[in-house]
Amino acid sequence: MDFFEGLDLKKVENLDLLAKQVVEGFIIGLHKSPFHGFSVEFAEHRLYNQGESTKDIDWKVYARSEKMFIKKFEEETNLRCQIVIDTSSSMYFPEGDKRINKIQFSALAAASLMNLFRRQRDAFGLSLFEDKVIEHTQCKSSTTHYHLLLTFLDTLIRNDKHFKTTAATDALHQIADSIHKRSLVIIFSDMLDSSGDIDQMFSALQHLKYAKHEVILFHVVDGKYEMEFEFENRPYLFVDMESGAEVRLQSNQVKELYVEKIKAYKETIKMKCLQYKIDFIEADIHKGFDQILTSYLIKRGKLK
Questions:
Q1: Helix H segments across 121-185?
Q2: What are the structural domains, with CATH classification, of the chain?
């Protein structure tokens, strides 16, 4: 069953609440998985000392024991995490039928990650790009900053966009120059650049690595339609969402060749990521967010 069946993200009024629900469900799942050892809350308690701030007192423990304990977090100097989202028109696939599209998936995944960052006391920023960088914030950990970024993500979820090309190379070079060194950079993109030059795209990703950043690339795809081309066998009018070019054809006439080409393209991306020591994760929009949150925790554990 589709993870998002029956969910119309454009009608969601509270993105923060939805992100919390995603993360809470993920944390419950962790207790039943091999990853239960990851700390997504805090490391331990210590007794409260008079005169300290009360903001980290665990009131649930106090209710049980009538003693005040401070939640002692594992790290006081935590990671800086920059989330980078490709907002070009191809990321708005698929359209219609109240199906979640790639940009909505990426926005909700980003909101869920930011919720997890806050639990870990990591600082986080957000960069959005299409043919240029359209939004870029530095990493902060404040509540005000968190809610500002949620407004940017909420706009992505609600908007429709047509005929906006991707120029990932220039945008990623610009972002690489703008991020504090030694950050964790998390990229959401379908890697469909209008230039068609994958080597140029990876030169920009190499720039991030040269600046001592750790990089996770979430290759956002619609597995059913983009990767497997599971369309009914009837005539379709296919429209390029970035150029507007149209082609009318019977789906089974091109399916075999299309699937062969798209899988070869994905393998090229994977091999390039391996070459540049970039974590490559295929993020199928039909499979939920555990794949995203688990990948972050694994990477974070390696960076401690």
A1: 143-158, 168-178
A2: 9-28+75-303 (3.40.50.410), 41-72 (no CATH)
